[in-house]
Amino acid sequence: MTRLHELQQSFAHALFKREPTTTAAVIATGSPRLSPLQQLEVYREQFWWRHVGCLKDDYPTLSALIGQDAFEELCVRYLAAWPPKDFLLRDLGKNLAEHLRAEGDRLLVDVASVEWAFVDAFDAADAPPLDPATIAEASADAWPGARLSLQPSLVLLDLQFPADELRMKHRAGESLSRVDASPRALAIYRRDLLLYSEPLEPSAHLVLAALMHGETLASACQRAADAEENLGGWFARWAALGWISRVDFSIVRLEVR
Description:
The protein is mainly α. The N and C termini lie far apart (about 65 Å). The protein is built from 12 helices and 5 strands. It has a 3-stranded antiparallel beta sheet with strand order 2-3-4. A two-stranded antiparallel ribbon has the order 1-5. Mean pLDDT is about 85; it is low at about 5-10 and about 25-30.
């Protein structure tokens, strides 16, 4: 390891410390106006201000729910456990829900999951909308083996708490407090440059999640007892919302023994 590399590592470690470092003289030279410690503190404080500010921008509901001081302490713990790996701040908070899961507070996990889903949906790529002509002449034998390509902006969530309602309350300017559990399935998606959330029936969520993971229509329908009787209505709704981009057909043949 070169001396320059050692200094770069020391500088990076000093920035990640929440408290002033005692090795500033090794890293900074100082100036007539600032000591080595004061020089380093300029960078260290900017690092934390920028990163905590970025996390607060992505997680405003979470910050409002637990309070600014508690949120900043959460950011300290999170950045210590998940330090940024590159210069882009877009993905800085992508592991916050996982970090909160390890800390054991499911309400906060759900709030973070909802807020990050909106970030993901906003930045996701676009896929072409479903062309009805591509499915108009499909035979009944082709549908069981069909695989659906869904819009990349579609995010499915299985929540234990009404985190989506907390987000709406915060956006409406209402004060927030902890709430009781209220399990729900939720879809978050982008359409025409706007973001939306859509409640899902539990069985519809199971089928849609299976389709998202590449299962055939027949396989996905086995996930829920009422799937076959409701599939027509679900498909029409998903298509109307623009969630389905393409349907690929292959005939499933059952082997008789």
